[in-house]
Amino acid sequence: MSPQVDLGEKEAAKLQKYLSGKGRLLLFFDPTTTPLPRWKSLASKAQIQLLDGVVLEFDKDKMYSKPQYFIGELGDTSRQSLLRGVNASVIFPNATPLLLASAEKSALQVTPLFETSPLSRSVAQGRVVRELSQGPFVIAAAVERKTGSPMRAVVVGNAAFATDVAFNQFGNASFFLSAINWVVGNDVLVSIPPKPPVTNSLSAGEVTRKFAVLISLLALPLGLLLLGTVVWWKRR
């Protein structure tokens, strides 16, 4: 879902015109070394600055297993109606840093949805790790124009959160669906978050596992053999 190549000139013009009117857009950007000047220009029309590099989060409360995995905590959901449909924190693996542009003279209302800590850093991709800038960064933001031509957009510095295994982890699926419903104007569906999945697991110690193996491989076959022998003996 993340752009792999830059927009063509005509494509960029059409999308910018669409966004200037009653546009409804979801923009997801994974880190890339491919230049994307027209995609960056499109994001800037929504008052979002798309930065280079990958976010590393060093705040342990916002880091999931390693610095490349940022945990987006919900916090106060009343600040943006989109968040009411999210049922848990969202995991963003390998995120692109975003910054909000100054909106003093803009008709757009831009609300950050998830932000990194001041301990976060953005680093250049490649064999040599090079720090580019210091956090905090915005990872996801909602953009809305209420006056004139109404417009809505959600810009996320990550697309991997909605793919493969990550989609079913934490609140990733609910955030993705809530973003879609909010962008297209289904605010009623946004206010009804899906229930978090219930996972039942059984933890067994080493002794218990050995006992289970002994029962399944020895006790049960021997029991069936003994039962069959008894039945055969009675029917002789």
Any overview of this molecule?
It is a single chain. With 236 residues, this protein is α+β, with helices and mostly antiparallel strands. It has two domains: 9-190, 3-Layer(aba) Sandwich (Rossmann fold), CATH 3.40.50; 204-236. The protein has five helices and twelve strands. It has helices at residues 9-20, 37-45, 172-184, 187-190, 206-234; strands spanning 24-28, 48-50, 54-56, 63-64, 66-72, 90-93, 98-100, 109-115, 121-124, 130-134, 138-145, 151-156. The protein has a four-stranded mixed sheet, sandwiched between helices. α1 (9-20) packs parallel to α2. The model has no long low-confidence stretch (mean pLDDT 84).
H/E series = HEHEEEEEEEEEEEHHH
Q: What does the oligomeric state look like here?
A: single chain
* Main sheet properties: 4 strands, mixed
Distance between the termini: 72 Å
Uncertain regions spanning at least 5 consecutive residues: none
Our Rg estimate from Cα atoms comes to 26 Å
How would the global form be characterised?
A: elongated
Task: Work out the strand percent.
Answer: 15-25%
The helicity comes to: 25-40%
CATH class of the largest domain: Alpha Beta
- Total domain count: 2
The beta-strand count equals 12
Query: What is the average per-residue confidence, as pLDDT, rounded to a whole number?
Result: 84
Total helical segments: 5
CATH architecture of the largest domain: 3-Layer(aba) Sandwich
CATH topology of the largest domain: Rossmann fold
Q: Structural class from helices and strands?
A: alpha+beta
Order of strands, main sheet, comes to 1-12-11-8
